[in-house]
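LAB NOTEBOOK - FOLDING QUEUE
OPERATOR: T.R.
BATCH SIZE: 2
PURPOSE: Compare the predicted structure-token outputs for two unrelated chains run back to back under identical settings.
PRIORITY: normal
REVIEWER: second-year student, initials M.K.

ITEM 1
FIELD SEQUENCE / FIELD STRUCTURE:
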Amino acid sequence: MNIVLYRLKKRKYNKPMTTYQHRHERGEISGSLIAIIGLIILVLAAGSAAIWAYINYTEQKTDVDGKISLAVAQAKDSQATIDEAKFAEQIKQPNQQFVGPDDYGRLTFDYPKTWSVYVATDVTQGGTYLAYLNPITVPPVIANQQFALHVTIEQKDYDQVVQSYQPLVQTGKLRTSATSANGNNGTRLDGNFTTNIRGSAVIYKIRDKTAIIQTDADTFQPDFENVIKTINFNQ
């Protein structure tokens, strides 16, 4: 009797799994698989986001580094330009003094020591006095040649010389204004004297003569302004 009951119990507990149990286990497997796939997707998404963030950071860093390098280079260039300008001004010092003929009022002014002077005429017998000044060397005296400075002292009346520029003033090519140096009054002209000559000039009456001090290019304008401040002559 006991053996029969044991066998019946053994059959009860060793019955094959029902269809429901198979479905339940397949459901658990499917759920786990979905969870794993979801986790993989999340990991891949996180990895992609990290890669994108790194690339974006690298690009921005490169852009910032490039801007910094450009700013540093520009600052160095600016400083180099400033240093060159300072050096160019320093080597002009101390100034030298230009001295015109005594018979022509002994016109004087200071000019950079790096400039050369060429006196083109001998006025021991009278006539128009001409002198040319230019950095390092004076170029040939030809038509439309630009000079840092040139000096003309004519045996003409002051009003006559000033009047000779009126056609250019009336057409607007030249602007006229008053000027003075060491108590001497004169006329200043600025603008286009010819097609190739653009600059400034000051005109002064010296006794029975008229002096014209002129620069032919805007490049020499700062030097010209310094020169005309030191103009002096005998009346």
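ITEM 2
FIELD SEQUENCE / FIELD STRUCTURE:
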Amino acid sequence: MRAVVLLSGGLDSYTAAAIAKSQGFQLHALTVGYGQRHGRELESARLVASWLGVERHLELEVDLRAIGGSSLTSDLAVPRDRDPAEGGVPSTYVPARNTIFLSLALGWAEVLEARDIVLGVNALDYSGYPDCRPEFIAAFEHLATLATRAGVDGARFRLHTPLIAMTKAQIIRRGLELGLDYALTTSCYDPASSGLPCGHCDSCLLRAKGFAEAGVPDPVRR
């Protein structure tokens, strides 16, 4: 069973990919460099892909800085010490990012004759991004059938989101059960030039909360 997995180099996509592998999928990993300020995650994606033993790791460059609209692709300040549960969509939202990424994954899946796409979106411990919600996933899955030759020929694409209803602590515990090395991952939106996480952005705060609730230390902060 072939599956295309969106692999960012972060904790969630790593865990989602490992779950898919444990279910017997042959993984084809797709990582997108989109001009993100936290480009260190691309290096982490390579380490994670190697650890997972993916069949192929495809890296694509789709520079979204020209579009702008996000503090991850511009000089806008990344919000710090914000409560991710306070509601609203923060400036770290990248306009239509998951729609773009899934379109690329869908195209590659059709070429590979794969019918499964895996992504690590989460709708519990997350920053409130609209393209991480179950409604979006269901809509894109329907679109995938309408938008492809394979779909016209009767194929059905499935989007696998094994983490969507899990807390960050549950995700971490599941990953540890699978033997994952979270020291390979990068989560910070605004790391220092040394690569150390800022500890204050939404992603750092959610990660810290997850490890604390899981009762295990974060290996990245050793």
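REVIEWER COMMENT (ITEM 2): The chain has one domain: 2-217.
FOLLOW-UP: none requested
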